[in-house]
Write a structure and sequence with these properties.
Elements (H helix, E strand, L loop, with lengths): L8 H9 L11 H12 L20 H13 L12 H17 L7 E5 L2 H20 L5 E5 L5 H9 L2 E5 L9 H7 L4 E7 L11 H11 L2 E5 L7 H6 L16 E5 L11 E5 L10 E3 L7 E3 L9 H37 L4 E3 L7 E6 L4 H10 L5 E3 L4 E5 L8 H18 L8
Parallel strand pairs: 2-3, 2-4, 4-5, 5-6
Antiparallel strand pairs: 1-7, 6-7, 8-9, 10-11, 11-13, 12-13
Bound molecules: pyridoxal-5'-phosphate.
Pyridoxal-5'-phosphate (PLP) binds next to helix 5.
Length: 427
């Protein structure tokens, strides 16, 4: 379990001494930006295609221009009140509609816009808790999710006073259905599966899991925060994709992030419910303060408007054929990467990821040490544990760097093997 950061008491005391105050006098914008960009030099340079998570760049200047323009056009508006800014209300309505149809949601479905996957998940768990209370009289519920599910589910349980029940994975890193069956009881308000999960990019057995939930009368969340803008376009390209969306009768709700493979800038996700009425459970109205009726359907009150505008703009700019073409390139890049990793001695991809995300380990060497060498060479790969591995979330921008990273990975493996006296490719 991730613990608290290890900070010594001396360091903590020093941190407490450190106070920043507002500068007495303003500075010139040139001076402010000089300092900002100086600091930024220390950040990972994602634009070079060497960062493998956190951002999802297309590497296309035309797409970036659309994002800049849409963000700029709505920099100052507030999405809290779409009555004041009706254009935002309309764009938000269209964005959630487009995502719902991508996920094959039925016409009676309802959907909400949120700031990201974590907020979509939090709202989905809230709705599940409230429905379980209203329909089944459950006061102290639990949610059952495979260990590979995003921590947002554990966080939601923590925020909403529910018991978190993480369940074991099978040897292929997908949810162990029997473990889920064992964990579900009469107080379970939600069962979760990922399509697909962050750690290994594998799709949980969504059909089986959702049937378990359906049979027990429990809500089921298919988390497609990553997969929502991947799997539908893989299907269009003819890849075999297991059922993961509302076409499965047991799937009651889904999350899908536009700020991942929807290629918009951060702050855009959608939560979709099979029945629009359930949305009422995530709406909050309050009329007891002396400033009129207050009404929101999200965690935040005042809300940035630019994510709505950017999501709407990029989805309309790319359209279905634009996403399909980006996916075609992405799958070619992923396939080359998989083949290249498989050809490096000792390296092995974990599980069977089908989309542009993979983790790999080494059967011969310490993969963490290999990761350290890659860090030193300026590649920013993620890390996974159990077993230890390196993690790559592949974006279109990476296409140009695939041979370079495979070459560096080969050298990193060889240099590590050399240091322990094993024969290397260069011997
Ligand atoms: C499968 C999955 N679900 C949910 C989330 C949470 O999304 P966010 O970081 O936008 O809150 C992530 C983030 O990577 C994810 O991979």
């Amino acid at each position: 379990m991730a613990g608290k950061p290890k900070v010594s008491s001396d360091e903590l005391a020093a941190l407490r001494q450190w106070r920043v105050t507002l500068p007495e006098h303003g500075r010139s914008s040139a001076n402010v930006f000089a300092e900002m960009f100086q600091r930024k030099c220390g950040d990972a340079d994602w634009s070079g295609g060497r960062v493998f998570s956190l951002i999802y760049p297309t590497g296309r200047s035309d797409v970036d221009s659309v994002l800049f323009e849409a963000n700029n056009a709505y920099l100052f508006e507030n999405a809290l009140n779409p009555l004041r800014f009706p254009s935002l209300g309309i764009m938000q309505h269209e964005v959630v509609g487009m995502v719902s149809s991508l996920l094959n949601a039925p016409t009676a479905s309802g959907a909400g816009f949120s700031a990201g996957g974590t907020e979509s998940i939090l709202l989905s768990v809230l709705v599940s808790r409230e429905r379980a209370k209203a329909e089944r009289g459950i006061e102290r519920g639990n949610i059952v999710f495979p260990l590979s599910a995003h921590p947002a589910f554990a966080k939601a349980a923590f925020f909403l006073g529910l018991e978190a029940r993480p369940t074991a994975l099978a040897s292929d890193f997908r949810a162990d259905v029997n473990a889920v069956v064992d964990a579900v009881d009469e107080n379970t308000v939600l069962v979760v599966g990922s399509a697909y999960g962050f750690p290994h990019g594998v799709i949980d057995p969504i059909e089986e899991l959702s049937e378990v939930a359906l049979a027990r009368g429990v809500a089921f969340h298919s988390d497609s925060c990553i997969g929502g803008f991947v799997l539908p376009f893989m299907e269009r390209l003819g890849f075999e994709v297991p059922a993961f969306d509302f076409r499965l009768p047991g799937v009651t709700q889904m999350s899908c992030d536009i700020h991942k493979y929807g290629y918009t800038t951060k702050g855009a996700s959608v939560v979709v419910y099979r029945e629009s009425d359930w949305m009422n459970h995530q709406m909050f109205g309050y009329d007891q303060w002396p400033a009129g009726f207050y009404w929101t359907g999200s965690v935040a009150g005042a809300r940035a408007a630019s994510p709505v505008a950017a999501a709407w703009a990029v989805m309309n700019y790319l359209g279905e054929d634009g996403y399909v073409e980006l996916m075609r390139g992405l799958m070619a890049t992923t396939s080359r990467l998989r083949e290249g990793i498989g050809a490096i001695r000792g390296l092995r991809i974990l599980g069977e990821p089908i989309g542009p995300l993979l983790s790999f380990t080494s059967d011969d060497d310490d993969i963490s040490a290999i990761g350290d060498v890659m860090d030193d060479r300026g590649w920013h790969l993620g890390r996974v544990t159990g077993p230890s591995g390196l993690h790559m979330m592949i974006s279109p921008l990476h296409a140009a760097n695939i041979e370079a990273i495979l070459e560096d990975l080969t050298r990193a493996v060889d240099s590590h093997a050399e240091s322990r006296g094993a024969p290397t490719r260069y011997n």
